[in-house]
Amino acid sequence: MTNMVILFTGAELLVNQLLFPAQDDQKSNPNVFVVGSTLQRLLNGAEDVGLFKEFQDGTMRGFTYANRESFKDFNGDGEGFLSDAECQYIIKHGLDTLRAKNEQHVPGYPKLKLYPGKSVVRRLQSKGVLIQYFPLHNKEDLKRLSFSWYKKFKLSFQPLDDIRHYFGEGLALYFGFLEYFTFALVPMALIGIPYYLFDWEDYDKYVLFAVFNLVWSTVFLEVWKRCSATLAYGWGTLSRKKAFEEPRAGFHGALGFNPVTGREEPVYPSSKRQLRIYLVSVPFVLLCLYLSFYVMMVYFDMEFWAINTYHENPNIATSILLFVPSIIYAVVIEIMNLLYRCAAEFLTDWGESFFLIIGCFVCFQFNFVNCFASLFYIAFVMQNMVLLRQSLATLLITSQILNQVMEAFLPYWLQRRRNKKVHKRMRRLMGDKELPLLGQVQLETEMNTYLGTFDDYLEQFLLFGYVSLFSCVYPLAAVLVVLNNITEVYSDAFKMCHVFKRPFSEPAANIGVWQLAFETMSIIAVVTNCALIGLSPQVKAYFPESDTQLILIVVAIEHVLLAFKFILAFVIPDVPKHIQVKLAKLDFDSLEALKKRVSTHLHMSLTCFLIIK
Amino acid sequence: MTNMVILFTGAELLVNQLLFPAQDDQKSNPNVFVVGSTLQRLLNGAEDVGLFKEFQDGTMRGFTYANRESFKDFNGDGEGFLSDAECQYIIKHGLDTLRAKNEQHVPGYPKLKLYPGKSVVRRLQSKGVLIQYFPLHNKEDLKRLSFSWYKKFKLSFQPLDDIRHYFGEGLALYFGFLEYFTFALVPMALIGIPYYLFDWEDYDKYVLFAVFNLVWSTVFLEVWKRCSATLAYGWGTLSRKKAFEEPRAGFHGALGFNPVTGREEPVYPSSKRQLRIYLVSVPFVLLCLYLSFYVMMVYFDMEFWAINTYHENPNIATSILLFVPSIIYAVVIEIMNLLYRCAAEFLTDWGESFFLIIGCFVCFQFNFVNCFASLFYIAFVMQNMVLLRQSLATLLITSQILNQVMEAFLPYWLQRRRNKKVHKRMRRLMGDKELPLLGQVQLETEMNTYLGTFDDYLEQFLLFGYVSLFSCVYPLAAVLVVLNNITEVYSDAFKMCHVFKRPFSEPAANIGVWQLAFETMSIIAVVTNCALIGLSPQVKAYFPESDTQLILIVVAIEHVLLAFKFILAFVIPDVPKHIQVKLAKLDFDSLEALKKRVSTHLHMSLTCFLIIK
Lengths: 613, 613
Fold this sequence. Notes:
- Chain A is mainly alpha-helical.
- The first copy, chain A, contains 20 helices and 10 strands.
- In chain A, the strands form 4 sheets. A two-stranded antiparallel sheet of chain A has the order 1-2.
- In chain A, strand 5 and strand 6 form a beta hairpin.
- In chain A, helix 5 packs antiparallel against helix 16, helix 9 runs parallel beside helix 12 and helix 13 runs parallel beside helix 16.
- The first copy, chain A, is globular and about 85 Å long.
- At the A-B interface, strand 1, strand 2, helix 2, helix 3 and strand 7 of A face strand 1, strand 2, helix 2, helix 3 and strand 7 of B.
């Protein structure tokens, strides 16, 4: 197997095999390699991937080994200068971007060919030679982190920097957002309670709440942009330019030169890509969208039928029947979703990154419909506010409980059982002699893989929907969401630390497409809230003679609110002033670095003149 | 007066006095100084102001004297490397940023003190010592430009690069936009004609036209962004960062250091600025807005009264009366506008740049109301489509004729008379001896000053409004606007070349706030067009029983269209791919310029591992 080691020396990484004691069954005894790196390699890697670290003057600068001394936290040989997550990222980058330069065989696997420009690791994975690779947990750091994170049950901010240090920026941003969102909801909740307790049938308060809700949701999202910019700048991901990164492992094609960086890397002939997008991707995506919408329509019919039957004779049986369509729909979604993700993943291997986006979008739309379709139906077709309140409450509470159980406790319980098994086997194998690393490897190999923040964000997004869309009918929603998120923080933290394999860290400068999703939701919320107010009997009472007048007024108000919303979003700068200055300074300094000055001979030219009294 | 020369040597510019022959009357004989510069100074200046020029590899780079040889058009001593407009800009920049370092007297003016950090030129101007300063026309270039621009009456694109070379990017972009807008309107016009000639009462076509109008206005604006980005990149203004420029002459305060560039320049204590904005600016601006709205309301009352009287007994007298309110309003506007501009200008001297913005906004809102208020009134209050068409047509045609006359021909006529006078005086003075430069100075001193592109853009904006807002009622509007713009190009070109003083060139990367204004207008257009369609009797005929249904459907369609519009605007990238790449490359190279590489000792650290079959 040493030839496998030779293969990876291309990445200048340290690879040594972890030897297991002899065993009876061969298959449960895979070859395990520990990949490490010299600090030297890591620091050079940090320069290659273009990490930004804090400079002496407090600004963030692209790290270079040459002037490493002038970076703030660099002392001695640079031990502890890079965060755990960064080291991990650099090594993974090294493995992923390890590409065969020319056509060759994998040493020891005569049948296994490598093609130029194609990632070696991915090739090995797809051929089933490489079963899996993942970062190991760091017991001490993990203990420290989990203590400061969720062990002590006092209300405190999360240790975002520690989280980022251990799990990377992507996850840290998620938890930052979760915390921010929860705190932002508190005022909503506080205002919601009296509405719930006393007179929420009162029209003026109704409108007041809706307007507050609108302003809140806008300001909330704008301020978050600033917060995340501040965080991301401090973590160096804001200044880091996407253009400089090499393409991810999945991306392959003939080797060529990146127009921006001039580095040699697989480039995809634009014409070919265009062709593929138009011939394969677009039809595929359209088909998926069509399917999803079709399923949605079927679901609507079922829902409609169920609700009607319930109305004809409301009893327990029919009230249970109300939930059947949603359940069927949910199941169908999960299946289609799975199929879609596989397809998208497969197509993404071709190098079409936008497939995952569409894939996420479709999955997202499924969930969106699943959660809100019935509510919209109840609100605007049946116009039954009491039922709307009921279903909102039930949806919120059930989803909250289900989430906690499904996300954290069930997996944890399974985990525990697995761990016991592994421990037993280990003891049987090697009696009492202690092999800490080997044991850890055995345990973590069995753990589930964390599939990324998508599902976590989706959950928050749906909660945001519950709060904003129908808030003025059910002001208590905010309270429930706050309660949910308080537990959510703990369960998610626990999940990350003890249920899943340690995920590879992903550098992230913002929450990406989710920002857009939340903003879209807040726009839809304006429309729904206006409509709900228009529908409320109290408001209708104001215009007994004609609906027309009422509708026109509601529409007018809605347009004004939307305009106000856009102006507000436009006025609030996305990046705080002091960070704008720092970013500008970086641009300026780097442009100045291109400049020198010399002086030469004289020459006359007239252009402009003055008249003086 | 030579001490005045000494004063300006600070800017390292060449200043020499233009001597007039002895004259009888003293006052008509001011001291005239010609300010020039060495090519050396210009090239260094180009570096100081951060001009971007085309590099050998076809990308735009910040010009540096040091590696001047590696810039594309730089040959020999760099003669003709900088455009006329750039030289001008550099010299003006040199004069404007000439600031007194410490408190001192103007040599020869014991009463006239200079304060540290305050622009010398501006000080002299405000004290009336410096009467005016402006760039001279370049007879040969002007002749060449004006020939290729408007002398030959064949339909051709404007020589934007020549315009930019002579007048600078700001004006070139205006003419580029004018041309683009005109060409973009041609399809609208072509589609409009059949609508006008045949059946524009037909409902479906009606809607079709409105939808086409919507898509057109969106695509038109998005594509313009790309065009202007391409132009601005080629001219080097796109890459040029605002942050690097020193503040304009008007801006003063204690000398400090710019946080970005680190240059010493007047900085305004933030706390003080805040205080001023809140105590002076905001109330002032609010007052102005209140006034303008008040005047608008009064105008509405008058309009209302006039229209009523016209309806009571429609005859010539009352039909004339219809125009009276608008005329009065226009006059009042002009006066308030003038006052406002003075105030804004004065306040801007304090360093509040956003005053001019607000000032423009108010003036803009005046014009907007003046042009469209009556139309909106006729369309949505009176709901009289025939009258709407009439007034649209009259407004368009009259404004077209008036513009041409007021903008170009009237000033030109006055100019001619003035020139004659000047010529006579010159001859009386110095008999037949020829003093070309002196003569030119005398002539151009008398010319009017061009007040910037604001009014020109405003005119185009209003025309855009006429086309988009009520298009589906009066599809012929586009035709009229196209006709108007064809003449507009010529009259504007003529105006720039022969009616006004040559303006100082302003570097511009885009049409700035006007992009926003046009986009806002196109959004409003969606609403108005939907409303107009909803109001049309044909559509009403579809819903005989209830208006409610009709309104709901119209609102729904409107929302869909708006959503579609936003998605369209979001999907089309603002900067073409190949320019994005070039910009990214610049960033990358400049960041790389900060980097070096050294290598040192080894060190071990574990992070990540593989399992291999």
